[in-house]
Design a protein that fits this description.
It is built from 17 helices and 27 strands. By secondary structure, the protein is of the alpha/beta class. The protein has an 8-stranded parallel beta barrel with strand order 1-2-3-4-5-6-7-8. Helix content is about 25%, strand content about 30%. It has 3 domains: about 375 residues, TIM Barrel (Alpha-Beta Barrel); about 110 residues, Golgi alpha-mannosidase II (Immunoglobulin-like), CATH 2.60.40; about 120 residues, Jelly Rolls.
C-alpha cells in the first residue's frame, strides 16, 4: 500500500510540473485559441507547415552520448542498447557487464550512470567542429531509451545535472550551437524505456524503487501506463520550454509504444509553443501513418529511392550510434555521395557522431567531419538552399528505399549524377571524377543563351557543347591542366540553358524492367563476369552465341528498349527478339571493355501481360565484333 501511495504522489508531482509550466490563463487542452491554434487532433495538426529553414539546411549533426557510452565503449561486441542488453542472459553484454562491473542484481544500470563523468566535455569544441563540418543544425540525443535526461530536469531526478557529469549538457550545447548560427535540435528516444528495461525487472529493478528510471514493474505485453506517458510528455516539453529547440525528433517508439492521445498532445503542445514564440518549428518521426497528418518523415539508415514532393530526413551515423572503439566507420566518399543523393530527392541528412565517454570527439570522427566540411566549402552552393530538379539524377547505381536499406547499397560510380537547382542555376553533381568528355543524358537543352556556360565549382568555366540529341557534353581539359578542385564528388553549375527532361530519362523510373546478366541463360561460350564491380556477359566472340531471358510484362502497351554494352574491338550490332517482334541496335566502338554505352533498340508493342521469351543475338554475323552486355532495359510509355 505504501508503494502505491509513493507512486501516485510522484505522478501527481510530475503532473504539477507539466501543467504549471505554460503561461497562466491557458485554456483546457483541445480548445483552440488565437494563442494556441493547434488542437491535439490529427485534422487540426494538418495545418502545420514544415519550415523552409529545414529545406535549406540539408545537413545536420547529432550525438548519441551518455551513460550507455560508459558501458559499451570497450565492449567486444554489441552494447549500443547497453541498459537492455546487460540484463539479457543470452547476450554477450550480460557476461561482459557481470565480469567488468558485477552482478546485475546489485550493480544495475542505475550504477553505471555515476561512471559517466565526461571530464573532457567541451561544448565549444563540439560546436566549432560541427560548424566547420558544414552542419546547419545540430543537437544532442536529449534522452535515449535509458530514460536518463541529459539536462537539468525538474521532471526526473535521473538527469545529468544531479548525476554523472553534474552538468546541464543540453543547455550548454544549446548555447554553443546557437552562438554559431546553427538551428538547434533535440532528439527523444525515451518512449521505449517502457520496453527497454523490462529485462531489468528480474534483477535490480524488481523492487520498483527506481521507477522513474526503469519505469514501474510491468509485464512484457502491458500497454504503457498513464504515469509513464505523463512523464514522457513532461520531459519533452520541459526541454522545449527550457532550451527552445527549432526541431524535435522522435524514435520508433512514438508509434510503437506511445498512444495516439499522447502523440497528438505532443504535436499540439510543441506547435502551439512554437507559434507563441514566433518559431518555425519541425517535428521528425519515422511513421508514414503519422506523416499523412503531420511532421517530417525520417528514415533510419535509409532514404527515399525516388524524388518526392515533401521534405524528408535520413538519420544515419559515421559508424556505430554510441561510440564503440572496436566498430568500423564508413568512408567519407560514401557519406558525401549519400548526402548528394538525399538532397537531389528533396531530403536532408542528420549525421550521428558518437563521442568518447570522456566527452572528447574520436580522432577518426573529427577527421571525417573536416573532410566533409572541406567538400562543402567548395561545393556547398550545390547543396545548401537548393531544391530538386525535375528528376533526381541518372546513372547505373540504384539505392533501395525505406529505413535500414543502406546496408544493401552499392557504391556509386563516376557515371552517377545527382541534380539540384537554385535560382537560374542547375547543378550536376558527379559522384566521381568524370571522363574527359562527359554527356549528361537526362538534361535536354532546349535552347542556350549566348552566355550559357558550365562551371566546375572550385575551378571555373569548362568547355561544353550540345550534341545531336540536345544533351550537354562537358569537355574537361587534361588532368595536368586542371586538377580536380576537391575529392569525393564534383559539382558542375549550368547557367543560361533552357532545359527539360530528356526522353532517355524514362529509363530511370522505378517501373523500368531491367534484365540483368545474372538472370540470363547463355548459349555458346558466353559467361557471366564482373569488371570493376559491375556484372556483365563477356567472351562473346562467336556471332552464333545467344542470350536468353524470361521477361515478365505486367501491363500491355508500347515499350522502349535499350541495352548497355561495350565493344572495344570495333563497331558491332545486336538484334533483340520478343513477342514475335525483332529490333536491332548499332553498337559503337567504345573506349575499352569497361566503359559501356547505351544503345537503342527502338520500340515494340506488348498486346497483353505475361511472361515472354526474349533473345539477344548478333544482328549481322559478317560484321560481328565482340560485345560485352551489361543490361537490357524496357520501359512502358505512359
Amino acid at each position: 500500500m505504501k508503494r502505491q501511495l509513493k507512486t501516485n504522489w510522484a505522478w501527481a508531482g510530475l503532473a504539477a510540473v507539466a501543467i504549471a509550466a505554460p503561461a497562466s490563463g491557458r485554456q483546457a487542452p483541445g480548445v483552440p485559441t488565437a494563442q494556441e491554434p493547434f488542437r491535439p487532433e490529427w485534422q487540426s495538426l494538418r495545418a502545420h507547415r514544415d519550415p523552409e529553414w529545414f529545406r535549406d539546411a540539408k545537413f545536420g549533426i547529432y550525438t548519441h552520448w551518455g551513460p550507455v557510452t560508459a558501458g559499451c565503449e570497450d565492449a567486444p561486441q554489441g552494447g549500443e542498447w547497453y541498459g537492455n542488453e546487460m540484463y539479457l542472459t543470452n547476450s554477450p553484454i550480460f557476461d561482459y557487464h557481470k565480469q567488468k562491473f558485477g552482478d546485475q542484481h546489485t550493480f544495475g544500470y542505475k550504477d553505471v550512470i555515476p561512471l559517466f563523468t565526461a571530464p573532457k566535455f567541451d561544448p565549444e569544441k563540439w560546436a566549432d567542429l560541427f560548424a566547420r563540418a558544414g552542419a546547419k543544425f545540430a543537437g544532442p540525443v536529449a534522452v535515449h531509451h535509458d530514460n536518463f535526461a541529459m539536462w537539468d530536469s525538474a521532471v526526473t531526478p535521473w538527469n545529468s545535472m544531479k548525476m554523472g557529469p553534474k552538468r546541464d549538457i543540453t543547455g550548454e550545447l544549446a548555447k554553443a550551437y546557437k552562438a554559431r548560427g546553427l538551428k538547434f535540435l533535440t532528439t527523444f528516444h525515451h518512449g521505449f524505456a517502457w520496453r527497454y528495461f523490462e529485462p531489468a525487472f528480474e534483477f535490480d529493478a524488481a523492487d520498483g524503487k527506481n521507477f522513474m528510471l526503469y519505469t514501474e514493474p510491468h509485464g512484457a505485453k502491458e500497454p504503457p501506463s498513464q504515469r509513464f506517458q505523463e512523464q514522457w510528455l513532461g520531459m519533452v516539453m520541459e526541454v522545449v520550454r527550457k532550451y527552445e529547440p527549432d526541431m524535435i525528433w522522435f524514435d520508433f517508439e512514438l508509434q510503437q509504444v506511445i498512444t495516439p492521445e499522447y502523440q497528438q498532445r505532443m504535436f499540439a503542445e510543441y506547435y502551439n509553443w512554437a507559434y507563441a514564440h514566433g518559431k518555425q518549428s519541425a517535428v521528425a518521426h519515422k511513421f508514414r501513418e503519422i506523416h499523412a497528418h503531420t511532421g517530417i518523415l525520417d528514415f533510419e539508415r535509409g532514404r527515399e529511392d525516388s524524388l518526392v514532393p515533401y521534405p524528408w530526413l535520413t538519420d544515419t551515423a559515421l559508424g556505430p550510434w554510441f561510440n564503440r572503439k572496436a566498430d568500423p566507420y564508413r568512408s567519407t566518399d560514401n557519406l558525401i555521395h549519400v548526402l548528394a543523393d538525399i538532397v537531389s530527392k528533396n531530403g536532408c541528412l542528420l549525421l550521428n557522431v558518437g563521442p568518447n565517454a570522456d566527452g572528447s570527439i574520436p580522432e577518426r570522427a573529427e577527421k571525417m567531419l573536416l573532410e566533409i566540411g572541406a567538400w562543402l566549402k567548395v561545393n556547398g552552393e550545390a547543396i545548401y538552399g537548393t531544391r530538386p530538379w525535375l528528376v533526381y539524377g541518372e546513372g547505373p547505381t540504384r539505392s533501395g528505399g525505406g529505413g535500414f536499406s543502406e546496408g544493401k547499397d552499392q557504391a556509386f560510380t563516376a557515371r552517377d549524377v545527382r541534380f539540384t537547382t537554385k535560382g537560374d542555376a542547375l547543378y550536376a553533381i558527379m559522384l566521381g571524377w568524370p571522363e574527359r568528355e562527359f554527356t549528361i543524358h537526362a538534361i535536354q537543352s532546349d535552347s542556350a543563351a549566348p552566355d550559357a556556360k558550365v562551371e566546375l565549382l572550385g575551378h571555373g568555366a569548362v568547355p561544353h557543347r550540345i550534341n545531336a540529341e540536345k544533351q550537354i557534353v562537358i569537355c574537361l581539359p587534361a588532368l595536368n591542366a586542371v586538377q580536380p578542385p576537391c575529392e569525393h564528388a564534383f559539382a558542375f553549375k549550368l547557367t543560361g540553358f533552357t532545359t527539360s527532361v530528356h526522353p532517355v530519362t524514362r529509363f530511370e523510373q522505378p517501373d523500368t524492367i531491367r534484365l540483368e546478366p545474372a538472370q540470363a541463360t547463355c548459349e555458346g561460350k558466353l559467361h557471366l563476369q564482373v569488371n570493376e564491380g559491375r556484372p556483365n556477359i563477356g567472351f562473346w566472340d562467336a556471332p552464333e552465341d545467344r542470350l536468353h531471358w524470361l521477361v515478365q510484362v505486367k501491363a500491355p502497351g508500347r515499350y522502349t528498349l535499350r541495352g548497355e554494352c561495350s565493344s572495344a574491338n570495333g563497331a558491332s550490332g545486336l538484334k533483340l527478339s520478343v513477342a514475335g517482334q525483332s529490333r536491332s541496335a548499332e553498337v559503337p566502338k567504345t573506349d575499352g571493355w569497361f566503359k559501356p554505352q547505351f544503345v537503342s533498340f527502338g520500340e515494340l508493342q506488348f498486346d497483353q501481360p505475361g511472361v515472354f521469351h526474349l533473345v539477344v543475338e548478333a544482328s549481322s554475323p559478317d560484321r560481328w565484333r565482340a560485345v560485352n552486355l551489361y543490361e537490357i532495359q524496357l520501359v512502358r510509355h505512359p
